[in-house]
Amino acid sequence: MQPMLLALVCCVSLIQGALAQASGKDAKPENQPPDKTELTMSPAKVDVQPVAHDEEIRKRLQSVLEATKWFVDPQVRVDEGVVFLSGQADTEELKKWAGDLARNTQDVVAVANRIDVTEPSAWDFAATRKGMATLWRDFLRALPYIIFGLFTLVLSAGAGWLAARATRAFFRKRVRAKLLLGVVAWGAGLLVFLAGAYIVLRVSGLTQLALTIVGGTGLVGLAVGIAFRDITENFLSSIFLSVQRPFESGDLIEVVGVTGFVQQLNIRTTVLMTLSGNLVQIPNALVYKSTLRNFSANPNRREDFVVGIGYDDPIDKAQEVARKVLANHPAVLNDPEPWVLADNLDKATVNLRIYFWLNGETHSWLKVRSSVIRLVKRAFQENGISMPDEAREVIFPRGVPVTMLNRESDQTGETRQARKPDRHRTPDRDKSTTAEDEVSTKAEGGLASEAAEIQEQVRKAQPLDEQENLLQAAPKVRAAE
């Protein structure tokens, strides 16, 4: 019985092959090697006596391909367990699906997939319409997530703003630095907003993206810090300066060789008004790392200068004369008391160093120093204390005679003994001039501090943005000048 069925199947296959050739179907000759796309992976095992016959396999595959209605004129031919597929499909996926279907059928040894994939027309917008329809359906499906995400982001932004305000109010009396207070408040608000964004991504099914964003925030900050190292360094220095507050607005400071009144400390620079009336901006990183002198931290300031007297003059007398000048000067403080100390022995003079203190808030150290030097010089001259200088005067203690020659004596050969200079003689002064009897001359312009004049120059200069000032405005200018 089985040989008769096999013969019948072979006859049917031969008849179908003849009909296919007569009807002009695309069928490859038997001796033509198959294309690479027609080949399938060889099965791991081939049955010698298959249970399913070729005709049964063909009918089953033919009925399945026709039932899907995905293929145009599908044809199935089976010969010794080898399935030959032909017809037309719209996509490569459908062609592959048909090949996988035949390969997974019982007792199929191999599959020759000869299904042609039709090329769509250039004016066929079916794929476009299908894609737009797919996008619209995806949008409608994602619309609830979008609404929820927007609502959550708005809510988290509002919560972040409230958290920033609450943090600022909580630390307002605990943190004096405005910049540090702003950074803490801004950081708290940002954390709340990031928590809301994380919830949105988790609900949307983007858990990995949420973790990447949260974990990458620190890496982004590190990368930005490296790329903008100078800007970051100045920003951090402004935080440290606003916390430590080594100076206030209006203080007279000296940093990196620049002396001036502090006008502003912003997130980038420290702005000084120099004694020459110039606005100078110094990077905060340089201010923080350099040695800083604050002349306004203590209103009292000590000044000193050196004056030389002759070797024949008694040191104690010169000290007492200078001390009286300092004691009678209205701008010199008695506590701490002034000093007049022997500093060193020079070639032609004994150098005295005079120390005195003054109040830097009310007096200018430049003007007071000029006044003290002038009065000490006058007191030395009035008390017969010489102030020689090796470049202009040579003193002979034992009166060594010196012969001076002039043009007349050079011609006649006559000499004349030079008169010994009277070192104790008080030089003639202009009796009409009474300025030396005053503590301050018109040239010195008084002894008051010039801080008010410098602040007036600040007001005339380019205005500064007070909102950027990280220092609290001082009630008055504290000057050491």
Account of the 3D structure:
Mean pLDDT is 75; it is low at 5-10, 17-34, 408-436 and 473-481. The protein is rod-shaped, with a radius of gyration of 52 Å. It has helices spanning 2-22, 54-68, 92-103, 126-171, 178-203, 207-227, 229-244, 284-289, 315-328, 365-382, 407-412, 451-460; strands at 71-79, 82-89, 110-117, 252-255, 258-265, 269-274, 279-283, 292-294, 300-309, 339-345, 350-359, 403-404, 416-417. The protein is an alpha+beta fold and 481 residues long. α9 (315-328) crosses α10.
Descriptors:
4 domains, SH3 type barrels, 481 residues, alpha+beta, three-stranded mixed beta sheet, five-stranded antiparallel beta sheet
- Note the overall shape: rod-shaped
N- to C-terminal separation?
128 Å
How many separate structural domains? 4
Low-confidence runs: 5-10, 17-34, 408-436, 473-481
Classify the beta-strand content into a percent band. Answer: 15-25%
* Count of DSSP-assigned helices: 12
Assembly form of the protein? single chain
Secondary structure class reads alpha+beta
Largest sheet: 5 strands, antiparallel
**CATH domain topology of the largest domain:** Alpha-Beta Plaits
